[in-house]
Design goal:
heterodimer; A: alpha+beta; Alpha-Beta Plaits; globular; B: alpha+beta; Aldehyde Ferredoxin Oxidoreductase Protein, subunit A, domain 2; Aldehyde Ferredoxin Oxidoreductase Protein, subunit A, domain 3; 13% strand
Chain lengths: 129, 607
């Protein structure tokens, strides 16, 4: 099970980002979201949405074993086990493994909570096998 | 109180001083945020009779308690100043990402004071606030500056920028943001241009605290669910505001050739589905918006891109100028945005100039040898550039239709389509009495968004002059601007018809203060009365004449279209106004009575 994104439907509104930060960190802060919205403006004028595919490359790379799988097979970061070594960041093929030490004392990624899907008004996001 | 960043930042461009103060609790209670904060600070701090283009005028930029949060359309920011176009109150709402970014930077309101000697821009990154030299950006178009700043500072920065129009003193200079969003009306960009403030770049990474996190998440999710379940969602997502173009044309509300008609024979090629099919490439939403009205377009004819055109721009730069090709309208839109001038005022003032030329009031000597006629996109594109540069006839037109008509005279005042000096936005009101009254009494001049009563006119009988119609206009004026106060968008309520009661638990969970709509509407009424007092204070001899509509709407019935032969009588205009004043608790010269001010708790502002 993973998140899928159809960038052609994305209007760049960032509702998903604030919903994500609320679930991951119980905070309103779209800079602490686990989706990566990349606007390409003014030319060509499209949005690109990058999401976690649950490929597991991050867990493979993590030297301390801080990235675990839950009962659904979803990879998540155990915040208290992360040492901020950042090995996971370049390992992620989609650019959705985040470390920003000025914002959080842990790496973070999508835990497939589905709140982003719930607030997306244009059906960009969906969860499927 | 939660839901606020709890900081007001003042930037004095004369001294270069930046200071912070806590957001006053009383202000949060009485005026809530956004437009309420703007009206309060303008009235309280800008001395009476201040010249709009002088260091004493201020620009107050405000978020609201919902801004940037998980609430549908939480992306609205209020820009308030004393208008150089009208000489009265100006407040314009900016969509996009700016309001969220400013709040995440820890700022509720930003108050721009004084005047810089040289061009500057404001750089804000959380606590770091700097006034920086803008020599490299001055004179450049809005798109170029935004792009350059994003390259310099990073994609996460949000940029608001003025164009050459505001720099050069065009009285309807706009503020541009996010490649296509504007605080367009009333000349906010002109005041910033006078102050030599080219741009504001903001980056915020703080969190915003709310009072009850779980209740807020539930209330926010309930609001999103209501939007997603709404029947109107799909068509609105497809067409945005252009969904009304065809309807306006059919019912005779589409401004055509300087409002001589409300239906346009070339209108069909401007309709929403045609635009969607021919030029729209991406839907573009403001912060947190499930129903994006922004349509990002590519004009093959010009190989250019623009966000838009929105309905108002289609009306004013399209049918109002006799132009039927959507690509031409979109290109005119792009030029206005890049040069930083309001599309609505621009369309109106060019329409007026064409009519002057047709009537022999303006001659070729005054038009720099140009033939002015309806249906000529090339002339319109040239004229937009002349207005922004204030070159030739463009200099006259840059002062807005009221001042231009006063200068030219010869009866041209009769077809200068404005109220209080603000050009009327895109609804023809020959035969729509509630919408006419809405324009007459709107707090910034003839703007539609406070009371969009045109569909109500059609529902209950467009020519009717009844107390119920007046009551509806007043209700709209008290209620609709509350979204500008919250820092969110009204269109989820207007267009998706979601239950407005869903907002109350959200507001309560965020701020920790319980308020129902009855109380919230009273805040709206308080602000409405305060801005009325502002007009009375600022304009010598302000009376009911300032609430009168353009003469055309009670003297010249359209000779074609759906409203052919229909007109509102002058006697009915006066009846509407008297009923309005009575219901508002104002004198018949348009002044709130002491009892009204007392009832609303704003006696301290009495003149």
């Amino acid at each position: 099970m993973r998140l899928y994104a159809d960038s052609t439907k994305c209007s760049g509104c960032r509702a998903c980002l604030v919903a994500c930060s609320l679930n991951l960190f119980q905070e309103n802060n779209p800079k602490k979201a686990a989706l990566n919205l990349i606007p390409h403006f003014p030319d060509p004028g499209v949005f690109e949405m990058k999401v976690c595919t649950q490929c597991g490359e991050c867990a493979e790379a993590c030297p301390t074993g801080a990235i675990h799988q839950d009962e659904r097979g979803v990879y998540y970061v155990a915040f208290d086990e992360c040492t901020l070594c950042e090995t996971c960041v370049p390992a992620c093929p989609e650019g959705v493994m985040f470390v920003r030490t000025e914002l959080a004392n842990t790496a973070w990624k999508c835990n497939l909570c589905s709140d982003c899907v719930k607030v997306c008004g244009t059906d960009v996001l969906r969860i499927a096998e | 109180m939660n839901g606020y960043a709890d900081t007001i930042v003042r930037v004095d461009l004369t001294t270069g001083k930046v200071s912070k103060e806590p957001t006053p609790d009383k202000l949060k209670m009485d005026f809530i945020g956004g437009r309420g904060f703007g009206a309060y600070y303008l009235f309280s701090e800008v001395p009476a009779k201040t010249e709009p283009l002088s260091p004493a005028n201020k620009v107050i930029i405000s978020t609201g308690p919902l801004s940037g949060l998980m609430i549908p359309g939480a992306g609205k920011m209020d820009w308030t100043t004393k208008s150089p176009l009208t000489g009265g109150y100006a407040s314009s709402s900016l969509g996009g990402m700016m309001t969220a970014e400013l709040k995440y930077a820890g700022i509720d309101s930003l108050i721009i004071e004084g005047k810089s000697e040289k061009p500057v821009y404001l750089f804000i990154e959380n606590d770091k606030i700097e006034i920086r030299d803008a020599a490299q950006f001055w004179g450049k178009g809005c798109f170029e500056v935004e792009q350059e700043m994003k390259h310099l500072f990073g994609e996460e920065f949000q940029i608001a920028v003025i164009g050459p129009g505001g720099e050069n003193g065009v009285l309807f200079g706009s503020v541009n943001h996010d490649y296509g969003r504007q605080a367009g009306r009333g000349g906010i960009g002109t005041v910033l241009g006078y102050k030599k403030l080219k741009a504001i770049a903001v980056h915020g990474t703080n969190e915003i605290k709310v009072a009850d996190l779980e209740a807020y998440r539930k209330a926010g999710m309930d609001l999103f669910k209501a939007c997603k379940d709404a029947e109107g969602l799909k068509p609105w997502q497809s067409y945005g505001t252009t969904i009304v173009t065809s309807w306006c044309d059919e019912v005779g509300a589409l401004p055509t050739r300087n409002y001589t008609s409300g239906s346009f024979e070339g209108g069909k090629t401007l309709y929403g589905p045609v635009m969607r099919d021919q030029i729209v490439i991406t839907d573009k939403g403001c912060f947190g918006c499930p129903s994006p009205c922004g349509k990002y377009s590519h004009m093959k004819k010009y190989n250019t891109r623009v966000e838009g055109p929105e309905y108002e721009t289609i009306g004013m730069l399209g049918s109002n100028l006799g132009i039927s090709n959507i690509e031409d309208v979109a290109e005119a839109n792009r030029l206005c945005d890049d040069l930083g001038i309001d599309t609505i005022s621009t369309g109106s003032v060019i329409g007026w100039a064409i009519e002057c030329y047709e009537k022999g009031i303006l001659t070729k000597e005054q038009t720099d040898g140009m033939e002015l006629k309806f249906g000529d996109p090339e002339m319109v594109l040239t004229m937009i550039k002349k207005i922004a540069k204030r070159e030739g006839l463009g200099d006259l037109l840059s002062q807005g239709v009221k001042k231009a008509a006063k200068k030219i005279g010869k009866g041209s005042e009769k077809f200068a389509i404005h109220v209080k000096g603000m050009e009327q936005s895109a609804y023809a009101t020959h035969a729509a009495t509630a919408m006419l009254l809405a324009y007459m009494t709107c707090d910034v001049g003839a703007h539609h968004n406070r009371a969009w009563a045109i569909t109500y006119d059609l529902q209950v009988g467009r020519a009717k002059v009844t107390p119920e119609k007046v009551e509806k206009v007043i209700w709209f004026q008290n209620f609709r601007p509350m979204f500008d106060v919250f820092g969110s968008c009204r269109l989820q309520w207007v267009e998706l018809s979601i239950d407005r009661d869903l907002y109350c638990p959200a507001l309560e969970a965020i701020t920790g203060v319980h308020r129902d709509w009855k109380e919230l509407e009273k805040v709206g009424e308080r602000i409405w009365n305060l801005t009325r007092l502002y007009w009375l204070r600022e304009v010598e001899g302000f009376d009911r004449n300032w609430d009168m509509p353009p003469e055309r709407f009670y003297t010249e019935p359209p000779t074609s279209g759906a409203t052919k032969g229909q007109i509102t009588k002058l006697a009915d205009v006066n009846i509407l106004l008297d009923m309005y004043y009575d219901q508002r608790g104002w004198t018949h010269e348009g002044a709130p009575t002491p009892e009204t001010l007392s009832r609303l708790g704003i006696s301290e502002f009495a003149l």
